[in-house]
Every structure is written in C-alpha cells, then in structure tokens.
Amino acid sequence: MSKTGVTGGCQCGGVRFAVDGPLGRPSICHCRMCQKAFGGFYGPLVGAPGLRWTRGEPKRFRSSNAVRRGFCEDCGTPLTFEPDGGSVDVAIGALDDPALAQPMIQLARASRLTWVDDLASLPAESEVLEIAEHATIVSYQHPDYDTAASPRSDT
Fold it and tell me: Residue 117: what are its φ and ψ, rounded to 5°?
C-alpha cells in the first residue's frame, strides 16, 4: 500500500476516514495533553492532508486555546489533532495499516516519562502462553478495512 489513499477509523467502526494526499511527518508527542488524550505514554500522530470522513464524524474536544482533538463518541478512540489554522494530524494507531507511519521525530521531550526509553528491554511473555490465554477471546472490533459485509456498514 502506498502512502496515499490511506484509510482508517475507530475501534467500533462508527467513524471512518480516508487520507487522499501523501501522509505527513509521523511523530510521537510526549506532552501531558497527548498523554491524557491517548491514555498512553505519548501521542503517535501523522499529518493527514486531504483528510475526509467516509463514515460518521468525530466528536471534538478543545484541549487548549489552540487545538481541538477528535475522537469517536461511541468507543472513545482518539482520531485527530486539529490545531487552529493548521494541518490536521490523525492518530497513527487509527490507520488501517499503522506500519505506514513509523515515527520520525519526538516532540515535547521535556514531558517524556523517563522510563519510556526502557520499554523495549522489558521481559516478554512467552508467545505460546500468550496465544493460549487469548484463544477464547472474540473481538467485536471493526476490521482494519471496509467491506459491504462489515458489521457497521453505513447503517
């Protein structure tokens, strides 16, 4: 898949989007607002020129005097970072193929949690054990693509 014609959406499938232009610079932002907006250690974002909503539209929260953040009102998935008068970014994890947007830069490093750099050195659970523990889980998450037969098709 090229970096144009990229699609994505929220976890429940109620909000879907397409990015018609080439993706912008992928980044991770360590600021406290991104930590809270994503409920994570940082906010992974990528520029989304030509962003258009193909199903639904996000609800928005004004997180500062300069930025609104879009999210799915039903499932809570973070979707956009929308600076007043600037280019919109989308959450990398909301892309159908997040591997297309490997972060190239870190922003707001002064707010970085000091232990984030050590995450890759944490011990990993055995894949065999992990597969066995998750074998009975049934996902209700929207697939990472749109089809006419998808559970939330424009109804």
Answer: -65, -20
Other beta carbons less than 10 A from residue 50's beta carbon: 13
Residue 148 clears pLDDT 60, i.e. is over it: no
pTM: 0.84
In CATH, the number for domain 6-134 is 3.90.1590.10
Predicted local confidence at residue 155, as pLDDT? 37
Q: Is 132 helix (H, G, I), strand (E, B) or coil?
A: helix
| DSSP secondary structure of 14-48 | SSEEEE-S-----EEE-SHHHHHHHTSSSEEEEE-
- For the chain, what is the mean pLDDT? 89
What are the structural domain ranges in the chain?
A: 6-134
Is 3 in contact with 23 (CB distance < 8 Å)? yes
CA-CA-CA-CA torsion sign (33, 38, 61, 89): positive
Distance between CA 29 and CA 106 in Å, rounded? 6
Cα-based distances in Å from 25 to 34, 42, 65, 88, 104: 17, 16, 24, 12, 7
